[in-house]
Amino acid sequence: MPDPSTVLLIGASGLVGRHLQKALAGTRTVSTFHRNGTEPGLQLDITDDEAVRRTIREAKPDVILLAAADAYVERCEREPEATRRVNVDAPRVIAVESKAVGALLVVFSSEYVFDGAAGRYAEDDERRPINEYGRQKVELEDLALATGRALVCRTSGVFGPDAQRKSFVCQLVDRLRAGHAFDVPSDQLITPTYAPALADAVARLVRLGQRGTFHVAGPRILGRMDFARLVADAYALPAELLRPRVTTELGLLAPRPLRCGLDVGKLRRTFGTDLTAPDVALREMALAEAA
Ligand SMILES: NC(=O)c1ccc[n+]([C@@H]2O[C@H](COP(=O)([O-])OP(=O)(O)OC[C@H]3O[C@@H](n4cnc5c(N)ncnc54)[C@H](OP(=O)(O)O)[C@@H]3O)[C@@H](O)[C@H]2O)c1
């Protein structure tokens, strides 16, 4: 597709949404938030079906970016029905409306659609989620792809400038800066993804007219401890405060798929290059925060 004329960005107040908003500068964008207002933006609860239908029909977008979700893995496990309303039922209504207005629907999924036995997964590897968040993401992918005009972006370990400081990187930095120890799962692989690079890549995939499923993630699969050490290094914080813990010691409700790296070969072939490497991205982020 050439440059879209109108994008509807649902969930512009989240970590991914805020960076998408920046990546879309210059494109007419109608943005929504839920509890954390963004300017300019419309307040929208995606579980309000009528409000969703009205918003889409009034915006008449040619692309809908659905970055809104209840992205807490533990809450999905504890409150499957409530989270399913946000993560599956609401997207189903959005998908129907997206089809009705002829828009491309872009949704965000996760490496948690896999069971974590293999270590590295390609787009068409068998999905076998082991927790509720992963199961909801499988349903999200399927309902989006069923529209026939969708882009499913699977990502992992997103980090970047984050006003709400909820991400793994921000929490780690804040704890170490305060001189406190920080528990790091020592047996989990992630594919750290720099939010500004993710957002630029999604905007580029849309402009290239891509459809289907893409792993939109950073170029390196890392153990969380290795990634945590990169964070400490970039921010000149004491890595000795990082405490490795096996996942079973963390008292988590939702089982975690442990070895869930995302293979980004398809993205690399499409762009001819990788997204920003995590060490480079972390230095950029630390410098920007220090400025
Ligand atoms: N962050 C990661 O590492 C990661 C990894 C893999 C996949 N993903 C996926 O990427 C997407 C974006 O994640 P994120 O990290 O940006 O999440 P986030 O920071 O928690 O942001 C969630 C967004 O959803 C909105 N939202 C929540 N409930 C809503 C509702 N009922 N109605 C309307 N909006 C609602 C929030 O609005 P308010 O803030 O205004 O309430 C916010 O804009 C999600 O699908 C997530 O599962 C993220």
Number of helices: 10
Distance linking N and C termini: 38 Å
Question: How much helicity do the residues have?
Answer: 25-40%
CATH domain fold name: Rossmann fold
Described by strand count, sense and barrel closure, the largest sheet is: 7 strands, parallel
Please identify the top-level CATH class: Alpha Beta
**Content-based structural category:** alpha/beta
**Would you identify the regions where 5 or more consecutive residues have pLDDT less than 50?**
none
| CATH architecture type | 3-Layer(aba) Sandwich
Chemical compounds bound to the protein: NADP nicotinamide-adenine-dinucleotide phosphate
Fraction of residues in β-strands: 15-25%
Q: How would you sum up the global shape? A: globular
Strand order in space, largest sheet: 3-2-1-4-5-7-12
How is this structure best summarized?
This protein has helices at residues 15-23, 49-59, 73-78, 80-101, 132-145, 168-177, 195-207, 224-234, 265-271, 278-290, and strands at 7-10, 29-33, 42-43, 63-66, 104-110, 119-121, 150-155, 158-159, 182-185, 189-190, 193-194, 212-215, 222-223, 242-245, 260-262. It has 291 residues and is an alpha/beta fold.
